[in-house]
Write a structure and sequence with these properties.
This protein is of the alpha+beta class and about 270 residues long. The chain has a single domain, classed as Creatinase/methionine aminopeptidase superfamily (Creatine Amidinohydrolase), CATH 3.90.230.10. It contains 6 helices and 16 strands. The protein is globular, with a radius of gyration of 17 Å.
Length: about 270
Amino acid sequence: MLKSLFSQRPELKSSREIALMREAGKLVAEALRLCRAMAVPGTRTIEIDQAVEALYEERGAIPLFKGYPGRVPFPAVTCISLNEEVVHGIPGPRQIREGDLLKIDTACKLNGWCGDAAVTLMIGEVTPAKRRLVEVGEQVLRTAMVELGRRRWWSEVAREMQRVAESAGYSVVTQYVGHGIGRIMHENPQVPNFISKDMKKHDFRLEEGLVLAVEPMVNMGKADTDVRRDHWTVVTRDGLPSVHVEHTLALTKDGVYVVTADAETLIPRS
């Protein structure tokens, strides 16, 4: 699968197109701020999803997850995953509890352009082990944001991301990766957070106009995952917690522009 997608060139964006993507990115950032405000013990995950759906409807945006094809079409506008759930959790009646790690991923299309981002939130007081996992996961994403403007090939960025996670004693999920993004949510290329023989063989050059949804998934224990019977929710096989964070990033002549940031954020080339 990686081979076929790496063989196709990324779809580069103009400055004008990146500015249009930023409008979708700002709405995704607003949706995640709303999620943060609601993420308190006792809140049901479906309540968060309904609030994000109402926000998108109010702004005239198309939610990109709801109805996404699969064995069962995805039923919500957010993926909400707790603790050992890695990604693609389905919102429902489950209540958030003190000490949980809450992962929220959402994407929308606004005026023909897409934005996609995810956060991991610590609910109340979490254990030091969970806090460290979150901090390292965020460091892995930050590493990608900085290295994207310094390197020539994606493999060089992925190597650094993997190094940060594994040097902290954690593992990087290899079954799921990031992706190019633009007029549709999933464009070429696939964007791994790790190094493999297949990935290095079908690497892609980092060029101005490249826009990627970079989304590391870092496990406290082993990298192995399973999918629950709902056909969507991915969980760690060993039952230990996982962290998922994501931003849509654009590589420009000036540096790395964080399309889905809360505030205008440009990381200069160095």
